[in-house]
Amino acid sequence: MHHALAQPLVADLKRKSVVGGVAAVSAQGAKFVVQTATTMVLARLLSPQDFGLLGMVVVVTGFLGLFRDAGLGMATIQRLEVTHEQTSTLFWINVAVGVVLAALCAGSAPLLVAFYHEPRLYWVAVVLGATFMFNGLAAQHSALLQRGMRFVTQAKIDVLSLTVGSATGIVMALLGCRYWSLVGMAIASSMVGAAALLLAVSWVPGPPRLRCGIRSMLHFGGLATCNSFVVYLAWNAEKLLLGRFWGADGVYGRAFQLVTLPVQQLNTSITGVAFPALSRIQHDAKRLARSFLRGFSLLISATIPITISCALFAEEIVRIVLGPKWMAAAPIFRLLAPVAVVFAVANPFSWLVMSVGRIGRALSISTATTPLVIVGIVLGLSHGPKGVALGYSLAMTLLVIPIAAWSKLGTGITWADLWGATSPSFLSGLLAGGAGLLVKLTLGDRLPAMLSLIVGLGLVLGVYAWALLIVMRQKHVYMDVLSQLLPRPEPRPKGAVEPAARSL
Questions:
Q1: DSSP labels for 378-405?
Q2: Nearest to 279 by CA among 395, 406, 190, 148
Q3: pLDDT digits (tens, 9 = 90+) for 17-41
Q4: Cα–Cα distance between 215 and 224 in angstroms, integer?
Q5: DSSP label at 247?
Q6: Is the Cβ–Cβ distance between 185 and 53 less than 8 Å?
Q7: 326 contacts: CB under 8 Å, gap ≥ 6
Q8: pLDDT, tens digit, for every residue of 101-140?
Q9: How many CA atoms lie within 13 A of 485 on its CB side?
């Protein structure tokens, strides 16, 4: 078996997961800084209409992006064993899918123009289609990188591609390219990411083979793609409807991106580690449950203070990050804050369900819950972006318990386990939120936005850390994580003598 197709030893899984998780979170932190800085710059160089135009096309490219690897990357990661012939065949399927998606994106351009009554969308859609070809070329290489738990390498590639893409977008904006700078940013990031993956993974695909045992992988990938499609409807229905009935003002999209960006990046980084790790121990139910609950607890503990800060200091964050002309996004930003917590609570259950191959259950959960989310969006549509934000948040919040109940069936995980994993973070968040609210009510508009945000964030994070580590006695959890990062002393052979003793 080619070394790129192998998985790490189970005995080394915990250390690799922790080291990989820290690397992934650190990379996401760097990406968050780059994306936030890029957003701050572009928000001042471009108009809301420029962002709104791209948002109209992203509805289509985002939809087509659900099929970019046909779920075959996940299938490669989830399988306990894969062969060179299987992965090679999947590679050529991914390449073909990328070409087809690029053609479909270009073919959708006239429909976008007719739907939105905006002729500028035509060439934007045609050009953005090229990203699918780059993704198709690198899909299996990315899966093999994750399968081998080479998370440090993956982190470097992610940061590099984002940095190059952001630099491209800013330079084009300075040159007056307007909305084309956003297109250039997407193309450059996709191109650099694909090239880096091809260089990082030494595996070279062979010719496609018939009857190489990929039927079950195609089945898994097909259901995973269908699940992604249903989830996409729940995540993007409000953007489609707002664009159609309220025009391309871009305010809702900026608010949604700003409030969900840190949580999405955090969730993406941990998911990239958790899914390969849990897949490796899918046949050990007890260890699987323990590992899931540990990762779930860590994700929740990191999400709570972010969400509290977004809800309390919406005006300050929007003013600093986007600028004064975007202040209409502040109330939308606050109304969407609960969505960040819902994502952090609900998304990890996909690790649990998919890692054991229960992709059909994941699809059933998504199919049952998405219509309810869309109902919430439609009910708020007549009230504009604020109504949609409120309806979306309420619908997502009400679905958390049903999603958790359905996902944990047959896993051995109880409600008491879930409460034990999340209660320290939620209770600490209540204390931190009360302290932050006190600052907000006391200081109000007396301080400049930047100083008010620094004071508020400092207090919220400080109280949260004190409550979580000391009051809730969770210090041992994080010390255990830290111990996995420290270098381990080499075991001394039996009968070995210390160097100093030998010199005597």
A1: HHHHTTHHHHHHHHHHHHHHHTHHHHHH
A2: 148
A3: 888 888 888 887 888 789 888 988 9
A4: 14
A5: -
A6: no
A7: 43, 48, 251, 254, 318
A8: 999 999 999 998 888 888 888 999 999 999 999 999 999 9
A9: 11
